[in-house]
Structures are given as C-alpha cells and as structure tokens.
Amino acid sequence: MAWTLRLLALLLAAVFSPAAMSAQRFQVEDIQQALSEIDVDALIGEAGGVLMRAPDSSLDGLFQAVHASAQIPAEAQTMCRLLEPDADRSLDAIGRAASRLGPASRDRFVAAIADIAAAGMQSPPQPYDPAAARQTLKQAGVTATLLHDGFLAGLSATGDDRASRDARCRSMGWMLDALKDFPPAQRAAATRLLLNEGLALLAASR
C-alpha cells in the first residue's frame, strides 16, 4: 500500500498550489496544472500540518472518494497501475492517471482533497491516536482475510505478471471494502494514518 499512500499524499499536497486553490471547476486540466506547478518539498510540511487539523468528516470524504473509484473496474486498474514496482509515479504520471478517471470520480477526489485543505486550515489540531488507527487497519485486514480466500496471497504477491498484478489490485479493493464497514471515526483515523505515512515516505524519497 505504500505507493497508494504516496499518491494520496501528492494529491493532498497538490491542492495547496495556487492553481488548485484558485480553480473554480474541477476538470482534468485543473488537476494537471496543479500537479505541474507543485513544489513538493515546500508543501509537504504544510500539507502534514493541515492533515492533522482536518476533521474526521473531511478525512472520511477522501476515503469515500477512493472507495467509490475502486468499485469501477477501469478506475481501480488505473489506481493499481500506480502501485506497481515498475510504475512511473512522477507528477506527470499522476496527472495522466487523473485524466483517466471519470468526471464524477475526478470531482469527488478534488472536492474531498479541497475540503481537507479548507477545513484543516480553519480547525484546531484533532485528537489522533496512531496506535488505535493502526489497529483499525489490522482489524480490516483480518476481516478481508476471513471474507476472501485470496486476500493474503494477493497482498504478498511480488510478481510482475498479469496474474500477480490483478491479485494485488483485488486485495487492495477488498481491504477498502472491509475498512468501509468500520465506524466513520475509525475510517477517518486510518485514513489520517495512511496519509501521514504517505507524506513521510514522500519526504524520505526527496
């Protein structure tokens, strides 16, 4: 899941660019323009601070946007391709991936991220227990394991063949499905944890 985290972290950071904050419509060109102008090094810290102040409802909105796209096979494949070991995960590649999402999904993603940014800039720091959030993710993994025989195999698949790629993608979807059934506060905490870890991974890779 590490590259999913980095992708979401980049999208979160992208909303702080002047192009994204001033856009009045959420179109492909807005996302690509924002990504092309972003100064990731300058914005990682700011995005992290806003993330810790964004309320649970805003974080859950982003989770719901990810889950909704994962229910559409073509869009799930688009997201999963960015997770592959040999994938191009440059800002340009993320912009191209965004252009392959349907209009409704693009609107959900950008609106959810913008809501995190707006609410996070206006709110105090939120209560947050990373250990409890990590436990929620573990419980979701247990649920997915019990419900789907191939979950663990897909999660641990390392091959670059089509079968391995499809297995990894299915497991990602099953994990999201399991997490969706948790209470909103727990989903939000897990999403906050994943985004925090994604920003940390992104910072370490700079």
Could you characterize the architecture of this molecule?
With 206 residues, this protein is mostly helical. The chain has one domain (2-205). Helix content is 78%, strand content 0%. It has helices at residues 2-14, 18-22, 28-37, 40-53, 56-70, 73-81, 91-99, 103-122, 130-147, 151-156, 162-180, 184-205. Helix 1 packs across helix 12 (184-205), helix 4 crosses helix 8 (103-122) and helix 4 runs antiparallel to helix 12. The longest helix is centred in the C-terminal third of the chain and has 22 residues, at 184-205. Mean pLDDT is 77; it is low at 13-28.
Major sheet summary line: none
Query: Span between N and C termini?
Result: 19 Å
- Uncertain segments are 13-28
Written as H for each helix and E for each strand, in order along the chain, the element string is: HHHHHHHHHHHH
Contiguous helical run count? 12
Q: What is the beta-strand fraction?
A: under 5%
Tally of distinct domains: 1
The count of strands amounts to 0
Tell me, rounded to a whole number, the average pLDDT: 77
State the helical fraction: over 70%
Rg, nearest Å:
16 Å
Shape: globular
Structural class call reads: mainly alpha
